[in-house]
């Protein structure tokens, strides 16, 4: 009997401490939940800030083709309306790693470097336009076709390599936008670019400003870019960025990667500053207006 009472007593004594424990546990759980929830909120807040930039085409992937349809800007429609067979089925961006081979890229790089060794802007951006002969040098441009040393710098073979690439890209553009390749004309400027992290010395060096190609170059209807180097390997920074309403979308340059897009306001974009290394690319543009055709 006394044992039972004793046990009861013990139980009676123990009870309050169990309740206390439970209360303590509940408070701990309550506070740890607050900590977990608020840290989750913090993580979500910061990662959603980061998520405003989407990688549309990563350097590490090889794309057969990836496209995104965007709504054509009114200005673009108004202008391109009159060119029946050059009219895009839809405005969009398209990236493919299948059009230009590694060998072709190597050849193009040799051509670009051969030209750039005679030029080079004081700032971070240089261009070489083999059609007009314009080459950045110091604060200005020189015309390589007017200088003895560079007049015959490029061989017939170099021009042929370039011509083949431009044709290939033209057919790819025509195919992906549903246009007639015979109604699509290569236009000016079509050029090699060399971007470095050097400080800008004039406005031409400031390639990172957001812009609409159609507003910079009136004759452009389709813009395409061929990358000659790898993002994160040959250079840092220098991603191509489409500025969209909710998210910005980046294209990471990759050797042989071709991006193409309609040149209107629907494809507002900029190129990030290169922070190290050298970034080479070839800009190839097409117009629907035959009067702006170049060879
Ligand atoms: C996209 O980039 C532009 C230019 O750098 C910037 O002003 C804008 O805030 C960015 N948009 C988003 C959603 O991050």
From TrEMBL:
<dbReference type="GO" id="GO:0016705">
    <property type="term" value="F:oxidoreductase activity, acting on paired donors, with incorporation or reduction of molecular oxygen"/>
</dbReference>
<keyword id="KW-1133">Transmembrane helix</keyword>
<dbReference type="GO" id="GO:0016020">
    <property type="term" value="C:membrane"/>
</dbReference>
<keyword id="KW-0812">Transmembrane</keyword>
<protein>
    <recommendedName>
        <fullName>Prolyl 4-hydroxylase alpha subunit domain-containing protein</fullName>
    </recommendedName>
</protein>
<dbReference type="InterPro" id="IPR039210">
    <property type="entry name" value="OGFOD3"/>
</dbReference>
<dbReference type="InterPro" id="IPR006620">
    <property type="entry name" value="Pro_4_hyd_alph"/>
</dbReference>
<keyword id="KW-0472">Membrane</keyword>
<feature type="transmembrane region" description="Helical">
    <location>
        <begin position="30"/>
        <end position="48"/>
    </location>
</feature>
<dbReference type="GO" id="GO:0005506">
    <property type="term" value="F:iron ion binding"/>
</dbReference>
<keyword id="KW-0560">Oxidoreductase</keyword>
<dbReference type="GO" id="GO:0051213">
    <property type="term" value="F:dioxygenase activity"/>
</dbReference>
<dbReference type="Pfam" id="PF13640">
    <property type="entry name" value="2OG-FeII_Oxy_3"/>
</dbReference>
<dbReference type="GO" id="GO:0031418">
    <property type="term" value="F:L-ascorbic acid binding"/>
</dbReference>
<feature type="domain" description="Prolyl 4-hydroxylase alpha subunit">
    <location>
        <begin position="91"/>
        <end position="287"/>
    </location>
</feature>
<dbReference type="InterPro" id="IPR044862">
    <property type="entry name" value="Pro_4_hyd_alph_FE2OG_OXY"/>
</dbReference>
<keyword id="KW-0223">Dioxygenase</keyword>
